[in-house]
Batch of 3 targets.
Target 1
Amino acid sequence: MTTLGIRGAFFDFVDDPWKHVGREQEAARFHADGLMVIEDGRIVDFGAYDNIAPRHRALEVTPIADRLILPGFIDGHIHFPQTRVVGAFGEQLLSWLQVWVFPEELKYKDRAYAADAARRFFDNLLAAGTTTCQAFTTSAAESAECLFDEAARRNMRLISGLTGIDRYVPADYANTPEEFYRESKRLIGRYHRQGRSLYAVTPRYALGSSRALLEACQRLKSEHPDCWVNTHISETRDEIAAVQVEFTDCADYLGVYEKYGLVGPRFTGGHGIWLTEDEFGRFSRSGAAIVFCPCSNLFLGSGLFRIGRATDPRSRVRLAWGSDVGAGNRFSLLGALDEGYKIGMCNNAAVTDAAEAERNKISPYRGFWSITLGGAEALYLDEWVGNFEPGKEADFVALDWTAGPSALAWRQSLVGDRPRTVEQAADLLFGLMMVSDDRSVDETWVMGKRLYKKGE
Ligand SMILES: [Zn+2]
């Protein structure tokens, strides 16, 4: 058994800050001098150093000084095979897929190409402080295998699955529904709940799916009800219009996934920018989640997600945040918080409901909850990750509030040499999300092992 202690300033969450309007700090937990005890990769004890240390006399303690230690970030929506096509110029969603994405993703039939990309993918995630992701692959099983294998090598938590598409895609890229079913089934047997891997039945999006492909997804989900389901929904208005033409028997976009029995707990739809009021209500009641991908929504010009609507307590929707690389132009979830904050503010240029306007404001509590415990709850991962409760897996990131642009110096001058209260820590975190970027990610740890150190 390997036991180690980490001593430093810890910041995590015990509740949803949107439930604590005006007193959001009650949802957070801060130990200016804390101790985390890790046994075989799992947290076994956590709290203020003076309380915890006497219980572990012979403990070997690693200090992480002058950093804010947060749970590893959770990216709820990312495309592994777009690692090399980030920042492609000049198209919106449907033409961007045809011009840039499908030609690149087609290369992932080549196992060596896919394996090399998987290494780059996780290197990028770790450098951004992200320790868990839900990822799309391609229509080729090689891409899913390379991704799961590389995650297992690093012992990282991953939700993924073969990504099915058979319409509006080059013929040499398309799955047949039969092959998609057979290969998904094989991959579920090989990877689902093996180590830290979880399998998601993954129809790419409704417009790219024939009825036979959606029936294959339905069969997979009914035969493996504890698998996840991951897809896209209501990203752009021309996409929604096309879905309505294809699926005249469904009242709306969410109705397509409902018709095939996919919507419920462990279902996630990326984006949801243009959801109707009725769809928001059905998301809320079903326990399904939306993933908000601010960088992507702005990069492709898809629209402004109504975060204040999704967080309405009368019909709250489970909400994770995602980078959506490569439509998102950076891996960093600090970058997503930056752009998400601005989307909330843009919404408030038009919102007249004062309560919704308040909910559109992404405070540091709301932001960092969203990419840690909130993301874990949305994706049904909170039994394993999301905060520092004993029993959870020891994934964490050490953020350096002195690194990055000089503009951060102003926030430090408000706080002093180090944060002593939860409010001071949150103040620094707001500086990190609005002014800084990956430069502030100093170390990233996975299952009690340091896998990334800046500059090494
Ligand atoms: Zn996406």
Target 2
Amino acid sequence: MKRVLFLGATSSIARALALCFARDGAALYLAARDADEAARVAADLNIRGAGLVRSGSFEATGYARHTELISHAARELGGLDGVALCFGTLGEHFNAARDAAYARDLVTENFTAAASILTEVANYLGIQRSGFIIVLGSVAGERGRAGNYVYGSAKGGLALFTQGLRAHMARSGVHIMTVKLGLVDTPMTYGRGRSLLAVSPTTAARGIYSAWRRRAEVVYVPWFWRPVMAVVRAIPERIFKYARF
Ligand SMILES: NC(=O)c1ccc[n+]([C@@H]2O[C@H](COP(=O)([O-])OP(=O)(O)OC[C@H]3O[C@@H](n4cnc5c(N)ncnc54)[C@H](OP(=O)(O)O)[C@@H]3O)[C@@H](O)[C@H]2O)c1
């Protein structure tokens, strides 16, 4: 039975991913900014097969409480096998491109806070020399675009951080997986126009779970984003800089 801590557990993708783990009888600790909603998700997962579900509050930028949260989750679950980092904020790019404080907050929530708690998690799992870390990243982090470069740069930084952490932990017995998500139909993307490439949180979660089971290190979810991003990366900068998306 896997014992897994979810960070940002009220995210739609996190809920669907937690359900995949629950169906296999995992024990889960659901940590989220909205502790009441996390408790409701926990109750739901309990009746859907999870071995044990606990929940609690988590603010990604509340750095002083991160070490205690990891220890608390491990105590509640009787140990910790893995962590799924699921929090993130898309924000409004119009504001981020004009307001320095807004841009700073977006980068902090998507990168700085993630780098901070990943360091704590890696320390914890590194000492026990086993476990796994799943990091929800984005294809937005692959190339700076006019339409979302603040969020994209934070996700790009997170991908590099995770890649470096994987190298740092290569001999530690800890499996680290970077997920490069394409468009997923969640509250984060609600109202931003429909796309034929968007998938449901359930489809995304199944892709993530199956990649985790085969111990993938970097996975595009859904798979077709790998060739799509290969094309996007290949467009010369002098042309790409005029793209308005
Ligand atoms: N949806 C997409 O198309 C897409 C594409 C690529 C990558 N992703 C990534 O996938 C992950 C999950 O996103 P989602 O689509 O499931 O979106 P979502 O349903 O909006 O979930 C985002 C989650 O992040 C939490 N969060 C944001 N800031 C936080 C903070 N400072 N402290 C603690 N929790 C915080 C939110 O908590 P509250 O509910 O309290 O706000 C929410 O639970 C994110 O990392 C996102 O960047 C999503």
Target 3
Amino acid sequence: MRLPPHDSTCRNCGAPLPPDAAFCEQCGAAVAVRQTSVSSTCPTCGAILADGEAFCSECGTKCK
Ligand SMILES: [Zn+2]
Ligand SMILES: [Zn+2]
């Protein structure tokens, strides 16, 4: 039993996944995003916004 090189593995079949994979290459299951509870992204730069965040931490765009 060896650990995968990345922290992302398929929750369905356990296959190691590329860091930015959206679907498992082995079983096709949708891969959960590693960030916790992604609710929205910045319309300007696409950065992931934390829950309740009113301004983008990357570019400062007001997002609410
Ligand atoms: Zn899988
Ligand atoms: Zn932004």
